[in-house]
Every structure is written in structure tokens, then in C-alpha cells.
UniProtKB/TrEMBL annotation:
Keywords: Glycosidase, Hydrolase, Metal-binding. The keyword Nucleotide-binding does not apply. InterPro entries: Gal_mutarotase_sf_dom, GH38_C, Glyco_hydro/deAcase_b/a-brl, Glyco_hydro_38_C, Glyco_hydro_38_cen, Glyco_hydro_38_cen_sf, Glyco_hydro_38_N, Glyco_hydro_38_N_sf. It comes from the Bacteria. It comes from Hungatella effluvii. Residues 263-339 form the Glycoside hydrolase family 38 central domain. This is Alpha-mannosidase.
């Protein structure tokens, strides 16, 4: 019988930040790559595998000659590049477009510098993996994937995403890091023990995390085993060689995400996660507005050249330890500054693009133009809030794009000063409609309104315990201030079987959320009601304010219901003071509501939960329902964790773990001082959508967009067209579709020319024929179930073709051509 073949993979997983800051990570990349090249000179059969185009970009900037030597080793086949992405990110929490840009920028960099794209995705240390990654990988030019967490009983399999795309996957049977001789031998032994049914398997070696790579001792240990080891034949190899050698295997198929790894990372560090969500949204909006401006004016702005750098800064900070909240505080503080810079720069690009649009139009006419913008791929029709510079003693009338007066309601301004003699601020709310990826021009005039409501902001209906319209009824408990009724009036279904609550847990787990025998339990305490008041009242919308306290922790909740809303908006202003604690918003949805749908990267993951089975990840929305589809959908603007327990649906809103606290024995002492995440103030928003029947996915995405910002506005001056190219219209849509289940996700400039890239997503799992409306033209197209579809057009939007996420046609990509 032939011996088992062990493919020894020399590697160094490098955390660019973790228990160190990025500057130290940069140094370790330099030292590790130099060491790998030194070992190649010393051992002619040694081979090295690495990931992350960010590292190659650092080397290119610091030591271009070193990059040239690496390039030669790549050509020789001794240096294997896996990953194809900018960094090894968290693979559950980033949005779908973030993963798409990882591949777009990473693969194009590799093609430009090394002549080939990467075919093997690799995230060995990430804390779980989205079930839609096979489609994203496949459409980014990769047909295989390597990971380690969680460790599965099936180390090699075919991983399939909901659309049917699949990749060969390797789940490492042993560690990726071996420091010395004994750990190297242990990794060999563990690999053999855990893969007894396989005649060949991969086995990693080399110093990692803080860098280092294979050492002389590692290599000599393996060479000794090549001669003396009885259990297997060992040889220096690569993941690519192993995958090539098993290409004829009939592999088992696995579907769905790999998750529940370090559950505490889903909720660590609320500020960082909120900033990350904001940065993703602003970058997507910036790209879309740049495209809208180019369509409007016929020219692309130079700001398009800045987008890749901003995305890559975001990518760097979606690294799994950074995104998971397990780095030291100085590294985390730097990440917050970098993400803040991305948000600010993306907002500047977005606003200059909007200015290019309005400057191309003739805005003269009665009153002043108020532009409402919609960067999303579906038409918007809902309440909007706008704050205006408006003389305090002047009347205000609002008209829609067609001259019809619009009723509005005055509300409190952000500036807490009113009734000044000079100048003034005015904040109003009204219903408006804006087409997909487009704008609508409303008009503001200094006339007495005939349809204006509540100009003095008086409380017409002082009842602080009920909010109600034709679609929804919300009631609040008079003793506790808690929401106790949330009824879908169209069906009569109440999503709550009792009062909601705020649950405070003792959470002494480490930063990753591992139990390690430390306490994690519900304290079963009650927050005290300080006050409950109706603070907004009118025919457009009403707001109830609830103030709660417990041991210095304060929570102010503003519940708002518009006249046409089907969901209740909750603005939460939290001052959290509890160390080693977990805070959850809990809604008693009942024991029958155990089926959930949660947003994941460009898709939805569906689960059926057992009783109290721990925390799961989500992105912008969660829907929990019974077998009949009745339940509660919750959208958020920066929360990522939920659980079901004792008939309650719970959204984790704060977790005050110690920064970079590990699980070593006796780590705690009285000499050191400890700092806790999430201590302090934060604001977050939830949208609560009760439903007496199953909601379409498009409705879940609608409330998700509403929670994260569905529109923007700009009050312009009256002017003639200020640019040479203009297309005058009071309502304009750049791109959209005619099917609710096919939605434009982003529009951007093509990487290779001045054309447009349009990314669409099918939401309901249906192969669909649809029409793409683009710059006044209609194109009949088809999209597969749950497909991420990318369309490329010329600058005039006249010719269209399907491309992959790298913006290449499939046949050309297979041939390695650009």
C-alpha cells in the first residue's frame, strides 16, 4: 500500500495589526518576505505561500528590488500567491460590495505586477465565512478556497453558494502556524490523525501571526521526516499543486455559511462597527453619484481616481482582528481614525458629484430648488427630513416637481436656537418621491402654506402611550415605558406577546467571546422609567420619547411613526456604564418564531433555531417569523449580532469586553489597569416592522436602506446651467429595473474605459427576466436565482454586456487576458 502523501505548505499568516499596530505589521511583512527569499537561496526544494496584496504594495513602496526578486520566484513556481484580496478580512460582517472590491482591486494588482491573477482564495484565520463567498470568489476569478475556522470533519469538499456557484474548499486539519521543531512534528501528527480516510493532504508549517515564515529549524525538521517518517511521504509543496492532484476526486458538497466562531466579535466595539457600516455606504453612494454626474454631464470627474485608495483603506480596517474588536486599543484607535477619514473623503466625493449634477441644470423658477437624491436602485417614496437656512419670520411653502403643494410638518432643528432676528433655521418633514439612482427637484417659496401642519410645533395629541396609523399600532406600558403592542393593522397580527425589555448580562468572556469558564448570564434586572412623553405631534408624524435608567446607564428612545409608515423607527441614545457586560434590545416574539432571515454579503442567510443556541451574525436586517411567515423584521444602522432565547428576539447593542483580553490562565491582576469597549455614549437606530404574513425580500432591503439613509438633499440657488453639458429635468432616473426582486446595488466607472459598471442582485431565489432601464433606454435581460450580476456599458449606455466582478468577460478571464 502506498504511503499517504503530505503536501508541506510553507507559509506565514501575518496579522498586520493585532497585539501590535500597523507600523509594526509593515516591518514584519518586510522581514518575513526577506526571510522567505533567504530560505529559497539556502534550500532549493523549499516553497512559500502567502496572501494579501496589501503586503505586496508595502514592499513595492519600501523595497522595489525585493518585489522584483519575489516576482522572479513567482515565475519559477516557488512563491505561491493565494488570497487574491487586499487583506484577510472578517468574512461574515463586511457588505457584499466590500468583498467585490477586494477581488476587483486585488486581482487586477496581481495581474499587473505578476502577470497572473490568483486562483485560490485564502482566509485561514478569519472567524467564519459567509455562505455566499463561493459566488463572489468564482466571479472574482478564483475556483478554490482555503480556511481553518471552524475546523470541519470534512477537510476537502465542494462549497456551494445559493446561486449554485461552487469552489473546491480546503479546511486545514491542523494549525497554520508552527514555531519550532516540536510544533512542526505535532502538526504533522495532527494532520495524519484527523485525515485517516485520505491518501493525500496538506500540512502547514512556518511562524505566523506576527510574521516570520518557515525557519531553518522548520525546514530541517521536515527534511529529516522525509527520510525517516514511517506514516507518510512528505514533500515541500503548494496549495495549487495539491488542488491539481485532487482535481479528479468526487468531492462531497457543503452549503451555507461557516459561523459561530468567536461570537463576541459580532458585537465588540459599537463605534468601530458603526463607522465601518457608514464608510461602506458612503463609498457605494460616492461611486453611484459619480456615475450619475457623468451621465448628466457627459464627463467623468477626476474624483474617480481616488475611489480605489479609499476602498483599500476600508479593506485594511475590515481585517478580521480589527473588525472583530480583538486588537489592542492603540491599533483600534488608529483604525477609527482611518475609517473616519474614509467617511469624510467619500462624503466630499459624493457632495461634489451632486454639485456637478445641480450645476448642469437650469434651476431658475419660483422660489428655491430643493434637490432630493436617491442613490439606491429602487424608487423611494417616504418621509424626508430637511433642515434649511430660512429666515425665521418668513413663511414657507413646499411644492413637488410638478408644482403641486406638499403638506409638511415643522420639527425641531439640530441647532437649538430659534426666534432669532437675523437668519434662522427651519427643519421640516414631508412625504416625497425620488426615482432610482436619480433626483427630484422640489421648490421652496416664501409664501403662506395652505397645507402646512403644526408650524408652532405644539403637541396636538399629548397621549404618550400610543402611536397609530392605518398600517401599524404601537402601545407602551404605562409602568415601564416599554413597547408592549406592535400590531400590523392590515392583518391584525401583534408581533409582541408581551412588553419588550432591555436585557443586561454579566459578560466576563474574553474579547473573542470564548467562554473559558467565565460568567455570561442574564442579570434579570429592570430599567427604571424616568419619563415618557409625546414630543412630536402632527398629521405627518408623531414621536414618543422614553427615558430609562439603571445604575448610571441611561437610554433615551425616540419612537417615531409617520402617517404612511409600516414600520416603527426607534432612535436610541445610550450612555453605557457597565464594564464586562452585554446589553440587548429584547422583543418577545414568541416560541413559535424560530425561523430567521438575515442579510449577509450580497444575500440572505436563512436559519431555523433551536432553543437558546447562542449569538449569530447579521448585517442590516433580521427577520424572525413562525411557520406561517408572521413575525417581526428589525433593521439597524450598525449592529451585527442577535440571538433567540426564551421566546425573545434579542439584538445586541453593546458589549463592554476588555480590549485585547485573551484567555490565558490567571491573566487578571491588580497591578494592571483595564479599559473596556463600548463604555460611553452611542446612538443607533432600529426599525421595527411587524408582519402578519411573509415579507418579500425587497421589503427587508427597503427598511434596511431606510435605517441606513435612503436619501440625501441639497438646497441650491437659482441659476442657469453652469456647465457646458446639461440635461434639464425636474425628475431624473439614471438606472433601474422593472422587477422588485432585481435591484441595482451600485453603479461605478469601468476600470478599463469611460463606460459604466452596474451591479445587480436577485433577491428572492428566482430565475428572472427583467428590463434594465438605463439613461432612457430599456434592455431585456435575464438574471439567475440569487445571482450577483455585473453589467458593463459604454459611456452613452447604448451597448451592454455581462462581465464578472473583475469587469472582464468570462472567456477572456479564463484565458488570463485583460
Amino acid at each position: 500500500m502506498e504511503k499517504k502523501q503530505l503536501y508541506m505548505i510553507g507559509n506565514s499568516h501575518i496579522d498586520p495589526v493585532w497585539f501590535w499596530e500597523w507600523e509594526e505589521g509593515m516591518q514584519e511583512v518586510k522581514a518575513t518576505f526577506q526571510s522567505a527569499l533567504d530560505r529559497m537561496r539556502e534550500f532549493e526544494d523549499y516553497r512559500f505561500t502567502t496572501t494579501s496584496t496589501a503586503f505586496f504594495q508595502w514592499i513595492e513602496k519600501l523595497l522595489p528590488d525585493l518585489l522584483e526578486e519575489i516576482r522572479q520566484r513567482v515565475y519559477e513556481g516557488r512563491w505561491e500567491i493565494t488570497g487574491g484580496w487586499f487583506i484577510e478580512p472578517d468574512c461574515l460582517l463586511p457588505c457584499g460590495e466590500a468583498f467585490a472590491r477586494h477581488g476587483l482591486y486585488g486581482q487586477r494588482y496581481l495581474k499587473d505586477r505578476f502577470g497572473e491573477i490568483c486562483r485560490i482564495g485564502s482566509n485561514v484565520d478569519s472567524f467564519g465565512h459567509s455562505g455566499n463567498l463561493p459566488q463572489i470568489l468564482k466571479k472574482s476569478g478564483m475556483d478554490s478556497y482555503v480556511f481553518m475556522r471552524p475546523r470541519l470533519n470534512t477537510p476537502v469538499f465542494r462549497w456551494e453558494s445559493p446561486d449554485g456557484s461552487s469552489v473546491n474548499a480546503i479546511c486545514l486539519p491542523a494549525e497554520y502556524t508552527t514555531w519550532f521543531r516540536e510544533p512542526t512534528l505535532k502538526n504533522i501528527g495532527d494532520t495524519l490523525e484527523r485525515t485517516k480516510g485520505y491518501d493525500r493532504m496538506v500540512c502547514c508549517y512556518g511562524v505566523g501571526n506576527h510574521g516570520g515564515g518557515p525557519t531553518i529549524e522548520n525546514i530541517e525538521t521536515i527534511r529529516e521526516q522525509m527520510e525517516d517518517f514511517d506514516g507518510a511521504d512528505l514533500h515541500f509543496s503548494s496549495f495549487g499543486e495539491y488542488l491539481k492532484d485532487i482535481r479528479d476526486w468526487e468531492l462531497p458538497v457543503r452549503k451555507g455559511p461557516f459561523e459561530r466562531i468567536n461570537e463576541g466579535c459580532y458585537s465588540n466595539d459599537s463605534e468601530f462597527k458603526r463607522l465601518n457600516r457608514l464608510a461602506e455606504g458612503r463609498l457605494i453612494a460616492a461611486d453611484t453619484y459619480l456615475a450619475m454626474a457623468a451621465a448628466q454631464t457627459g464627463e467623468w470627474s477626476e474624483e474617480t481616481t481616488k475611489i480605489e485608495e479609499l476602498w483599500n483603506t476600508l479593506h485594511f480596517n475590515e481585517f478580521h482582528d480589527t473588525m472583530g474588536g480583538t486588537t489592542i486599543k492603540p491599533a483600534r484607535e488608529e483604525a477609527v481614525m482611518q475609517l473616519s477619514a474614509v467617511c469624510a473623503k467619500a462624503a466630499f466625493i459624493r457632495e461634489t458629484a451632486k454639485q456637478r449634477i445641480v450645476n448642469s441644470l437650469d434651476t431658475r423658477g419660483e422660489g428655491y430648488p430643493l434637490f432630493l437624491f436617491n442613490s439606491h436602485g429602487k424608487d423611494f417614496s417616504d418621509c424626508v427630513e430637511v433642515e434649511l437656512e430660512w429666515f425665521c419670520q418668513s413663511p414657507l411653502k413646499v411644492s413637488d416637481p410638478f408644482g403641486k403643494e406638499v403638506p409638511y410638518q415643522r420639527i425641531h432643528t439640530a441647532a437649538k436656537v430659534r426666534h432669532t432676528v437675523l437668519g434662522g433655521r427651519r427643519r421640516i418633514v414631508f412625504y416625497a418621491s425620488v426615482p432610482s439612482c436619480g433626483y427630484a427637484v422640489y421648490r421652496l417659496s416664501k409664501e403662506a402654506p395652505s397645507l402646512g401642519f403644526n408650524q408652532k410645533m405644539e403637541i396636538d395629541n399629548p397621549d404618550p402611550y400610543t402611536l397609530e396609523n392605518q398600517f401599524l399600532r404601537a402601545e407602551f406600558d404605562k409602568e415601564t415605558g416599554m413597547l408592549c403592542v406592535l400590531m400590523d393593522r392590515t392583518t391584525g397580527y401583534d408581533a409582541l406577546i408581551g412588553p419588550a425589555s432591555v436585557r443586561l448580562y454579566v459578560d466576563e468572556r474574553d474579547a473573542w467571546g470564548g467562554l473559558q469558564g467565565r460568567r455570561y448570564e442574564d442579570r434579570n434586572v429592570s430599567f427604571r422609567l424616568e419619563s415618557i412623553d409625546k414630543v412630536e405631534s402632527g398629521k405627518i408624524r408623531e414621536t414618543i420619547r422614553v427615558r430609562l435608567t439603571y445604575e448610571g446607564t441611561r437610554l433615551e428612545q425616540l419612537y417615531t411613526l409617520g402617517a404612511g409608515d409600516r414600520e416603527l423607527r426607534v432612535e436610541n441614545r445610550l450612555c453605557f456604564t457597565q464594564p464586562c457586560a452585554l446589553l440587548k434590545a429584547a422583543y418577545p416574539t414568541g416560541e413559535d418564531c424560530i425561523a430567521t432571515r438575515a442579510e449577509t454579503a450580497y444575500g440572505i442567510v436563512e436559519r431555523v433555531h433551536e432553543a437558546d443556541d447562542g449569538e449569530y451574525s447579521m448585517q442590516r436586517f433580521l427577520d424572525v417569523a413562525d411557520k406561517r411567515g408572521r413575525g417581526l423584521a428589525v433593521a439597524n444602522d450598525g449592529k451585527y449580532a442577535f440571538n433567540l432565547t426564551e421566546g425573545r428576539t434579542q439584538i445586541t447593542v453593546a458589549r463592554s469586553a476588555i480590549y485585547a483580553q485573551g484567555s490565558s490562565p490567571d491573566w487578571e491582576n491588580e497591578i494592571e489597569s483595564y479599559e473596556y469597549m463600548d463604555i460611553g455614549t452611542q446612538t443607533y437606530h432600529l426599525l421595527l416592522r411587524p408582519h402578519g404574513e411573509r415579507l418579500p425580500a425587497s421589503e427587508l432591503y427597503r427598511i434596511a436602506e431606510k435605517a441606513n439613509g435612503s436619501y440625501e438633499y441639497l438646497m441650491d440657488s437659482a441659476h442657469m446651467p453652469l456647465t457646458k453639458n446639461s440635461r434639464n429635468s425636474v425628475v431624473s432616473s439614471f438606472v433601474g429595473t422593472d422587477r422588485d426582486n432585481v435591484v441595482v446595488q451600485v453603479v461605478k466607472k469601468a476600470e478599463d474605459d469611460d463606460g459604466f459598471i452596474i451591479r445587480l442582485l436577485e433577491l428572492e431565489g428566482e430565475d428572472t427576466d427583467y428590463h434594465l432601464f438605463l439613461m432612457g433606454n430599456a434592455y431585456p435581460l435575464a438574471i439567475g436565482h440569487y445571482e450577483i450580476q455585473t453589467i458593463k456599458t459604454d459611456r452613452e449606455g447604448r451597448s451592454i454586456k455581462a462581465v464578472n466582478l473583475l469587469e472582464w468577460e468570462e472567456e477572456r478571464e479564463r484565458n488570463g487576458e485583460r
